[in-house]
Amino acid sequence: MSITATGARAGLSRGLTELRLAFSGAELVGQLLWPVATLVAVFLVRDVPVGDGYTLDTFILPGALGMFVALGMLLVVQQLAADREDGSLLRAKITPDGIPAYLVGKLVQISTTVLAYLAIVLLPGLSFVDGLDLGRPGSWLTFAWVVLLGLVATQTVGAVLGSLVASSRGAGYVSLPILGLIAISGIFAPITALPAWLAWIAQAFPVYWLGLGMRSALLPDSAAVVEIGASWRTVETALVLGAWAIAGLIVAPLVLRRMARKESGSRVAARRERALQRVG
Question: How many CB atoms lie within 10 A of CB 34?
Answer without folding.
Answer: 16
